[in-house]
Amino acid sequence: MKTPESETPQPSASSGPARMMSNQMGIYYSNCAMIATTPRDISLFFGRFTPVPDNKGGQTLGELYERQIYMTIEQAEDLAKMLTRTLEAFKSRRQTPVEKPRE
Q1: What span, in angstroms and rounded, lies between the C-alpha atoms of 43 and 17?
Q2: Where are the domains of the chain?
Q3: Is the CB of residue 44 less than 8 Å from the CB of residue 71?
Q4: Which pLDDT belongs to residue 3?
Q5: What's the confidence (pLDDT) of residue 7?
Q6: Contacts of 98 (CB under 8 A, 6+ apart)
Q7: What is the pLDDT of residues 42-98, one digit of tens each?
Q8: 56: which of 8, 39, 47, 100 is 20 to 30 A away, CA to CA?
Q9: Burial of 65 (0-12, 13-18, 19+ CB in 10 A)
Q10: How far apart are CA 21 and CA 55, in angstroms?
Q11: How far apart are CA 73 and CA 86, in angstroms?
Q12: Which pairs from 55-63 meet CB under 8 Å and 24+ separation?
């Protein structure tokens, strides 16, 4: 199967459709998130805290949302399951004591 130059094939964990990651995909760091819903969709907003001027001449932190992802309720449920499994695995690895190398 040929792929466009801007895509790199990735192995799929299931027998479903092939997964591809765009070489054009930008990385975005987010340290705040917000969720909005409709009866049919969920919208995830990702942002970051940034300094903003306050009314006293100083600065405070404000939330600047720059990325938005829409998904169906079913897609959001799948995402929630995957995030839960990933977080549980991550936490269990962090709680396992690391063996010190012998000298």
Answers
A1: 24
A2: 26-95
A3: yes
A4: 47
A5: 53
A6: none
A7: 999 999 999 999 999 999 999 999 999 999 999 999 999 999 999 999 999 887 666
A8: 47
A9: middle
A10: 44
A11: 20
A12: 63/32, 63/34
